[in-house]
Amino acid sequence: MIVSHTISDLRGVFAACALAIAMVFAGSAVAETANNDVWNGLRKDVFGTRELLDGTGKMTLTAPIRAEDAAVVPLSVQMPADFANSVTKLTLIIDKNPSPVVGTFTYGPAAGKGERVLSTRVRMDQYSDVRAIAETADGKLYMITRFVKASGGCSAPASKDAEEAAKSLGKMLIKTAIGKTADGLAQEAQVAIKHPNTTGMQMDQLTGLYAPARYIDKIEVKTGDKVVFTVEGGISFSEDPSIRFTYDGNPSDPMAVTAQDSDGTQFAGRSTPSAS
Predict the structure, then answer these.
(1) In the 8-state DSSP scheme, what is residue 211?
(2) DSSP H or E stretch at residue 99
(3) Are 146 and 227 in contact (CB under 8 A)?
(4) How confident is the model at residue 32 (pLDDT cuts 50, 70, 90)?
(5) pLDDT bucket at 28, cuts 50 / 70 / 90
(6) For residue 219, what is the enclosing H or E element?
(7) Helix or strand or coil: residue 220?
(8) Is the dihedral angle over the CA atoms 165, 166, 167, 170 positive or is it negative?
(9) Which distant-in-sequence residues (6+ apart) come within 8 Å of 146 by Cβ?
(10) Dihedral sign, CA of 86, 63, 127, 72?
C-alpha cells in the first residue's frame, strides 16, 4: 500500500513537471509569435516588400547579451573588405524601442576600400532583437540579428541637469587616425557630440514633468572634401552620441563634422590636423 501511494505521488509530480514544462514552451511560443509580429510590421514600414538576405558571414554585429546600462548599450558592426566595398548604407534597428530605427548611415567616397567598422552606443527600452541591415550597390539587403537583454534605457534620467547640459550643447570631440584596421587599409576615427538626446520619456524627479524630446537627427562627416558618411538618427542613440568608424583619408587632413538636432539647431566641429 505504501508503495502504491508512492508511485501515485510520483505520477502526480511527473504530471506537474510536464505541465510546467508545457507552459514554459507555450509561453515561449507566444513570446516568439509576438516578437515576429513586431518585426514583421516594422520590416514592412522600413523596407516594404524588399527581400532581406542572411548577412551571416558577410558582417558581424557585436552586442552584449545582457547590458550593464540600458541607456548606454555598445553596438559594433564589422564588415570585411570584400563585402564592405559594395555597401552603400547601414541601418541599425532595435525592434521594441519606441523609435526602432536607431540610424541609417549612408556611406560616401571616403568610407574606404578596406575592412569597415562602425561602433556606437544606444538606448534600449526593453529586451529586444537588435538588427544591422546593410544595403549593397546592387540594391540587395543583408541582415544580422542579436538579442540583447536591457530595459528602461529610453526613460532613464539624463546624467546632467538641463542647465549644465545646455552649457556644452553641440560641443564636439573629433579624433582622427586613432588606429588602423587589421588589414591596414583604413584609418579609425571617433566623433562624439555633447547633446542630451532626450527621448520625451524621461521624467524630471523634482518637477514630475517630462523633458521634451530633443535629439541629434542628422550628422555629416567629411575628411578633406570627401564624405565619409551621413547619418539620419533619432532618440535611440544614447546621450552624448558617439560614433567610432573607419575611413579612407590622409591623417594630416582635418575632419569636418556638421550636425543638426530635432529643434533645427545646427552644430559644427573640425579636428586639428594630425602631425603624423
Answers:
(1) P
(2) none
(3) no
(4) low
(5) very low
(6) strand 216-223
(7) strand
(8) positive
(9) 61, 62, 63, 129, 130
(10) negative
Q: What are the CA-CA distances from residue 237 to residues 125, 234, 262 (Å)?
A: 12, 6, 13
Paired residues of 148 in beta bridges: 128
Q: CA–CA distance from 77 to each of 49, 116, 160, 162 (Å)?
A: 25, 8, 29, 32
Q: Which residue has 534597428 as its cell numbers? A: 93
Total residue length of the chain: 276
Taking the C-alpha atoms of residue 255 and residue 173, their distance in angstroms, rounded to an integer, is 11
- Type and span of the H or E element at 119: strand 116-122
DSSP-derived 3-state class of residue 14 = helix
Residue-range domain boundaries for the chain: 1-49, 52-270
CA distance 159 to 226: 35
In the predicted structure, residue 183 carries a pLDDT above the cut 80: no
C-alpha cell at 173: 570631440
Query: Is residue 261 a contact partner of residue 126, using CB atoms and an 8 Å limit?
Result: no
* Helix (DSSP H) and strand (DSSP E) numbers for the chain: 3, 15
Helix spans in 155-213 (H): 162-167
Cell of 266: 545646427
Say if domain 52-270 classifies as CATH 3.40.449.10: no
Q: Which cell numbers in the block locate residue 149?
A: 537583454
